Amino acid sequence: MKLLKECTLTDKCSYLENKEQTAHYKLLSECNSSYCSALTQRGWRRFGKMFFRPICADCNECQSIKIDVNNYIFSKSERRIIKKNSHLKTVLQHPTLTQKHIELFNKYHQYMHEKKGWDNNQTDAKNYFTSFVSGHEEFGYEILYYDADKLIGVDLIDILDNGISSIYFYYDPDYRDLSIGKYSLYRQIAFAKIHDKKWIYLGYYVSECQSLSYKSQFKPYITLRGRPSEHEEDIWD
Hints:
Layout: E1 2-12, E2 20-29, H1 33-41, E3 45-47, E4 50-54, E5 63-68, H2 76-84, E6 89-93, H3 99-116, H4 125-133, E7 140-147, E8 150-159, E9 163-171, H5 180-194, E10 199-205, H6 210-213, E11 221-223
Parallel strand pairs: 9-10
Antiparallel strand pairs: 1-2, 2-4, 3-4, 5-10, 5-11, 6-7, 7-8, 8-9
């Protein structure tokens, strides 16, 4: 592992209106699975070679959350969603970049801009590569979802020592009736059960943020206590 750059930045909060966010950033090269696992267990998130976590002095709204895989039981409604998507084909591989990735990503964000008022974060090949392809090393993967030969969803994950870290998922809004976002998470849980991974790391839960508050639906879950350093034990409640 090589630390290329480390800094702290304050900017507009990504999750709550009229608030600022202070975050700690690490730019890493040649990161291995063990170190990525250690950071993830302590509340860090990875995008490309960049790891970050909020360290706001007067706010603790961002709660690192993970699903307890061993004790997760699929409900009847969840099994129905799994059955409804059983016709989809999936491919698990290290992250790639194609024109179809870019088009699908931008279509999804245009839809979320119109539906939920998200910033219309259109991307290009350079930005997409930096955020989702670069830095995957041996632990970063994408799960591609196909309806016949049509790419309709991309799930970006890290498969770590003791769990799966959900990085980002985007999909074709024309297929929103399939609840494919939920389905992708159920697939992660099923995969983790088969491969003896104890946790699904969902990133941050923020109760007042509509885009993040849904995470509390997936029970049982636990949250990280405080902001432990790399040399401190991580305690989850």
